[in-house]
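INTERNAL AUDIT FORM
Audit reference: QA-55
Scope: verify that the stored structure record matches its stored sequence.
Auditor: D.O.
Record contents follow.
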Amino acid sequence: MSDCRDGPNLPGCALTLLLLDAARAVEARAEAALGAVGLSLAKLGALRHLVLAPEPLTLTQLAERHCCGKSNVTQLIDRLEAEGLAERTADPLDRRTIRAAPTREGRAAYERANAILAEQEHALDEQLGPGMRTQLARQLMALREAQRPAARPLADRHAS
């Protein structure tokens, strides 16, 4: 944990640690809210990709979109399927390939989760104030883009 109680520019208050602390706090709050209805951020992430896909996804496609390994996705789909939120289907063109799709219950759970996250964001909006949310979102998007593998290292950018 970063120690920034006495100001953001003091030793022990590294920006990276501060960002990670904030992310963990937001994540814990969201996990607790989703957990109350039997969901998690991991389940929601997988459901999101399944719901938004125009057709059932192969487990490889889901792993790529969810940015995790195929074995993790297999276990995640196992849990979603056991809970009636997703189903496996055979690929009509290649019966060796398994696809996953949300069930009606999975779509409903996705909608409930979105409502829960909207409540969480509303609480953040109230804490941050009107202009700060937009500014923070812009800065976080820029930071995320700067961290992508194709982006040049920050030190290289300062040298140009």
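Auditor finding: record pair retrieved intact. The mean pLDDT is 87.
Action required: none
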